[in-house]
Specification:
about 170 residues; mainly alpha
């Protein structure tokens, strides 16, 4: 382990059933994203280091929206969570603390929905592309989406200050 690898955490070893394992890996991916923002300034969080303009704060903003859309709209059936801008441009009037608080609130809301949906095989409340896929599919989708963006966040953080680790 290198000296800069201060953020390394072990993957979850929760193997107590499909739901527990799936939700443990979703929580781990979310934690990896948030951890990448620790100790950075507002400017560093907003800094775009790739040609697409993606920033750490933009990733968090995007994932908060995705949590609301997938768990709030499709799983819980909340109409108000249907339409979102999935872009990664963070409005200038939102502070980093506000964006991070929104992500944490979206995670808490998603977790509440999942706790009330003990059976991951049940269909979602509102269809996805005209299909009533399972809650399990949404959990898998959000885990892969969050993990993919956690990888992006790893690279951005390393570019900002050299800190690595998952």
């Amino acid at each position: 382990m290198t000296e800069t690898e201060t953020q390394r955490r072990p993957v979850p070893f929760d193997d107590n059933g499909e739901s527990d394992t799936a939700l443990a890996f979703l929580a781990f991916a979310r934690e990896c994203v948030v951890k990448k923002t620790d100790g950075l300034t507002e400017e560093q969080l907003r800094r775009a280091l790739v040609p697409t303009g993606t920033s750490l704060l933009g990733l968090v903003h995007h994932l908060a929206t995705a949590e609301l859309h997938w768990f709030g709209h499709h799983v819980a059936g909340r109409a108000e969570d249907e339409q979102h801008d999935f872009g990664m441009d963070v409005p200038a009037e939102l502070t980093a603390d506000q964006v991070l608080a929104r992500y944490r609130a979206a995670i808490a809301a998603s977790d509440a929905v999942l706790r009330s949906s003990e059976d991951l095989t049940r269909p979602v409340a509102l269809p996805i592309r005209d299909e009533y896929l399972s809650v399990r599919w949404v959990v898998a989708h959000m885990t892969s989406e969050t993990a993919r963006h956690a990888g992006h966040a790893d690279i951005l953080r390393e570019q900002i200050d050299g800190v690595t680790g998952r």
